[in-house]
Amino acid sequence: MDKILVHGGNSLAGSIKISGSKNSALPILAATLLTREPCTIHRVPDLSDTHYMLQILTHLGAQVERASGIVTVTADKVQSVAPYDVVRKMRASVGVIGPLLGRCKEATVSLPGGCVIGDRPIDLHLKGFEALGAAVRVEGGNVKVFAPKLAGAVINLRGKFGPTVLGTDNVMMAAVLAEGTTVIEGAAQEPEVCDLADFLNKMGAKIEGAGTRRIIVEGVSELHGAEHDIIPDRIEAGTFLVAGAIAGNGVTVNRVEPKHLTAITEALSGCGFKIEANKQSITVSPNGAPKPLEITTEPYPGFPTDMQAQMCALLSTTDGISVITENIFPQRYMHVAELKRMGAQVQMEGATAVIQGVERLTGAPVMASDLRASAALVLAGLKAEGITEVSRVYHIDRGYEHLDEKLSELGAHIERVKA
Ligand code: EPU
Fold first, then answer.
1. 146: CA distance to ligand 1 center in Å?
2. Per-residue pLDDT tens over the stretch 263-311
3. Residue 330 CA: which ligand 1 atom is closest?
4. pLDDT band at residue 113, thresholds of 50, 70 and 90?
5. Closest CA to 151 of 197, 96, 219, 209
6. 122 φ, ψ (degrees, to nearest 5)
7. CB distance 171 to 128 below 8 Å
């Protein structure tokens, strides 16, 4: 297994280009199953998660061509069974259930296993499919959905922890080929949901209201092929902005959609950093001593849970007491124990982390546990004294396109040790 070694202490400066969004690309690739015609998707990030999704599509019968970020999927014929072997590596594989149900009126997909960021049920997805007229059975580790006919319905997808992103995607993808009108109340408003709706509309779907709490889908009888550019990855951009805040002297992220990053840039401004945003770029620079902060993770447009670990790393080295509360995945704190090994002072109180900033962290061998936690450890290493050795970096490769190379471009001293 590869490791990443971060030699702390270098100052970062300059600019990098942000890749296409992982969390847009995954459901959009799944949505290509909804038509027999070829779909061409641009700016698909080169990540293990997108590779897994393409493997699943291939297993389901689609033909896939991939060349430098452009992926063409032709799902002329599809079959509707995805076994454990094919889906187990990635939770987002549940995103094929909606399109398979829409296209084939049935799907049998193995349920992904446990997840280190907490319990991740799909009850709301299933509730949505049932409302559209599907019979749903969970047996032998598989979820089976079947509907002789799908019919539009009013569905409230809001759960105990707020709206569900992939649940909204999944129900929307089934509803585009249902008879009549579906109204999704309590829909997720994330930009990735809007990107999927844009793609589906290009395929001939009739979706309104994406980006609001109420999405209306007018069912159509079939969809056609389409071409689409994936939106920039706001979490990758946020991660590099936090890298710039932790160890930078003017770091610019290019090819971003600044309005998707408002909660992140507001948090960094609140911390005392200077933020300059242009049409497609954002620069973070130091501006006096950083200040502690209180943050609560929330559904979009609130502060994203996918940036919580990285902020923990930043606030660990910010003088004063900061408080982070995780409202989406209350157990998503695997990075805290590792940050503590580097000298961070963090006390957990339920889903709240109380962070007493320290003057410096020290490099240590640490273990990546999930995608964002791993990124946080690399960021902490940029500021730490000595060498931080991050193992299990396959977690990073699931969701960051060339993180180590991009940080090197900015001047970090970072190396990947191949296993
Ligand atoms: N939830 C339920 N029932 C459901 C679905 C979700 O109770 O049927 C709960 C979850 O347990 C959680 C909350 O609702 O407490 C929100 O979960 P959501 O369904 O929105 O998460 P997701 O769609 O499975 C996506 C991203 C995650 C990101 C979350 C929240 C993708 C592929 N994944 O997951 O991204 O953290 O939304 O924004 O889009 C990451 O990129 O590192 C990552 C984990």
1. 24
2. 999 999 999 999 999 999 999 999 999 999 999 999 999 999 999 999 9
3. 15
4. low
5. 219
6. -125, 25
7. yes
Q: Is the CB of 165 under 6 A from ligand 1?
A: yes
Q: Is the pTM of this model over 0.90?
A: yes
Answer whether 129's CB lies under 8 Å from 94's CB: no
- Structure tokens belonging to residue 46: 């080169």
User: Using one digit for the tens of pLDDT, what is the confidence trace for 328-384?
Assistant: 999 999 999 999 999 999 999 999 999 999 999 999 999 988 999 999 999 999 999
**Which atom of ligand 1 is closest in space to residue 124's alpha carbon?**
8
Please report which helix (H) or strand (E) contains residue 82, including its range: strand 81-82
For residue 67, what are the β-bridge partners?
A: 70
Task: Tell me the CA distances in angstroms from 301 to 49, 170, 212, 274, 401, one per residue in order.
Answer: 25, 21, 10, 21, 24
Element (H, E) at 339: helix 334-341
Element (H, E) at 353: strand 352-356
Classified as helix, coil or strand, 92 is helix
Regarding the beta carbon of 124 and ligand 1, being less than 6 Å apart is answered yes
Domains of the chain plus CATH, in order, are: 2-16+233-418 (3.65.10.10), 24-229 (3.65.10.10)
The pLDDT of residue 83 is above 90: no
Question: Catalytic: 115?
Answer: yes
Q: What are phi and psi of 405, to 5 degrees?
A: -65, -40
How far are the Cα atoms of 21, 103, 226, 319 from residue 41, in angstroms, in the given order? 12, 20, 8, 45
Question: Residue 130 Cα, ligand 1 centroid: separation in angstroms?
Answer: 20
Atom number, ligand 1, closest to the C-alpha of residue 92: 32
Cβ(234) – ligand 1 distance below 6 Å: no
The pair of three-digit structure tokens given for residue 82, joined into one six-digit string: 């995805």
- Tell me, what amino acid is at 122? I
39, 104, 115, 271: the catalytic one is 115
pLDDT above 80 (res 72): yes
